[in-house]
Amino acid sequence: MIHVENLSKHFGEVNAIQEIDFTVNDGEILGFLGPNGAGKTTTLRIITTFLTPSGGRVTVDDLDVAEHSAEIRKRIGYLPELNPLYDEMLVYEQLRFVAESRNIVGRWFTEALHRVIDVCGIKEVIHRPVGELSKGYRQRVGLAMAIIHDPDILILDEPSAGLDPNQIVEIRELIKQLGREKTVIMSSHILQEVQEVADRMVILNNGQVVADGTTAELMAGFEGKASLNLDVKSASEASVTGLTRKFTDIKVRENSLHDGHGHLLLEYSTGHDLREQIFHYAVESGWIILEMSRTQAKLEDLFRKLTIENGGPHA
Ligand SMILES: Nc1ncnc2c1ncn2[C@@H]1O[C@H](COP(=O)(O)OP(=O)(O)O)[C@@H](O)[C@H]1O
Ligand SMILES: [Mg+2]
Known about the structure:
Low-confidence stretches: none
Bound molecules: adenosine-5'-diphosphate, magnesium ion
Number of strands: 14
Strand content: 25-35%
CATH superfamily of the largest domain: P-loop containing nucleotide triphosphate hydrolases
Oligomer: single chain
Number of domains: 2
Helix content: 25-40%
Largest sheet: 6 strands, mixed
Shape: elongated
């Protein structure tokens, strides 16, 4: 269990994060979402004990990161944002180097090596120089380095940044698989990725937590707009105007009616579901409804709203 309490970090005048709170439960995959400059890397570097907080505290399994860095580094595997590799080493040597730094040698190294080769799918490249690897394989090797000591917690900072679409899918699958056994925090500035991989998300903007919950929870609290697509016949312009008079919450966003036949796009706030009233109005007005479909406000809208309307990323 990871507790982040009232955590702040400033670099001189820059407040990178300000009094943030969130919790990561055991076994959970937490998506740590926010635009560039939101403070994701800073937070992750504090949790992994590579940076000290300016205020507040972080505990990992009840151990304070400020006091127990060595113990916490044993429990955490960390894939930094700029995954630093030695290009001139062979993949196998790179892994041995990381293992040695954790005192994993001899038989224990052999065992660990087989495990990470298997989990991360890096058998083909194990005798290749790191500098010759594709970006996808570099990330796999980075993950292998992060889990060489079989930690319970994995912290991945923008693990799919710079990958092509196929590699992104592969790395996501790998993260999901690792998430079955481990507690994972994965940062990203891409909502879709977090939605696909994570159980829960914390959204950061301007160094502050602006949302925390499952996709469903976040949506439930989001008063966005619902859109209703209607294909109709026999709908007079007067009756369309009449609809917006009767229901003042409804706006007509598109109207391509010709002689009463065509498409209408209606919009209203998701707080009230007006489909039934619209249906009855249509029947009363003699419209023939050929099609009626609703588009719900999307989580993207919420993300955009939270991260743009709150002032956007740091300059
Ligand atoms: N070492 C540093 N010195 C000065 N400012 C920093 C440093 N690291 C991060 N920052 C600033 O802190 C803010 C948050 O950065 P960061 O945590 O890297 O965000 P993210 O990972 O979400 O893109 C940014 O404004 C960034 O410029
Ligand atoms: Mg970052």
